[in-house]
Amino acid sequence: MHVGIKVGAGVAGVVLVGTALGAGGAASAGEQPPPRPAQGAQVKPPHDGEEGHGPGAIKVGAKGAAQAMHRLMVRDELRQRWCHGRVLPSDGLNLREGPGVRYRTVRILKHDSQVTTDWDTVQRRDGYLWVRLPDKFWIADYKTGNGNGKWYIGYSDCR
User: Fold this and answer.
1) CB distance 129 to 151 below 8 Å
2) pLDDT of the residue at 115
């Protein structure tokens, strides 16, 4: 049995790996079971690679990267808050409990799934720009790079 500490959103908890509980068994009193996958989503085993799986993300140059990073600075009433788009990577995109790769992946959003993101929540962590969805889960919608990067979401109404 492996015991680790999980810290996120100001709450610390013990994570048990290799036990019935860590393998998705019954939760003890006070713990919530993992959410059921939404329609159009598939259950995802842990993944150590890139957040967006497979080809299909929109690769950008230096100008596009600067525009993406500008979202971190712009939080005003003139900017659209809720943005709509579709998952671009052919093998899907991780949906996580929080904004970062240290948070648990709850499922993969399939290619072409519709998403609504809250651009007022955008955060830069672990080489990605993270945004929250209305259901309070998070996705990496942009992967940063050295003056380059790529979008995992093809937005239809955001700038």
Assistant:
1) no
2) 96
